[in-house]
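Input chain follows. Return structure tokens only.
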Amino acid sequence: MAASAKGAHTQWSTIKIHNTSITNVYHPPNSIPDIRQFPVIYDRHIVSGDFNCHHELWGYQRSNPNGENLTNWTSNYKLQVIYDPKQPATFESGRWHTGTNPDVTFCTEVNGVTPTREVLDRFPRSQHRLSLIQTPLLFSFSTGTPLPRWNFQKANWPLYKKITDDLANHLPCPNKENINEAYKSFTQRIKNSWKKSYSKRFQEKILPILGQ
């Protein structure tokens, strides 16, 4: 995980899920963003947050210098803005009863696909709306050879005890010439005893893991 420097005017933090980096940004209003404080962008990267920058690319009637600085930064990293004019505004002013878009999302392609954004309902006790960013799966399900699952409560322990008690009558007498063979015979008979007294079941699917 990476984050902005302590006390930096623009605050951001980045996490990584498999091969995709996700950065959340907050830049306060009425201030000039210093793009030198912005995060480094990688091949698969989603940047989203409250930038408080105006630009025609995300629905403002006019661009301001802050918006121009922000688009210059995104151009350097070939980031695309995710904006759909058919979606609601991300900020609804209770005072002016107007909608604007200070909350913006930029991205590169993720696994060969451009992420999408859906603007949801307003966040409780806030004038901001939630944004749902959807990407291709960042992890996949891995399948493999069925694994044995042992439930010792279902074993037939009286039968196991009877079989193992009889082992001594059939084991070869160990001595220094055949100690290895005697041990091999003993372990094999223990395994056979267990197979006779317990029927194992298999797990059909294994747990999901992050990528491959």
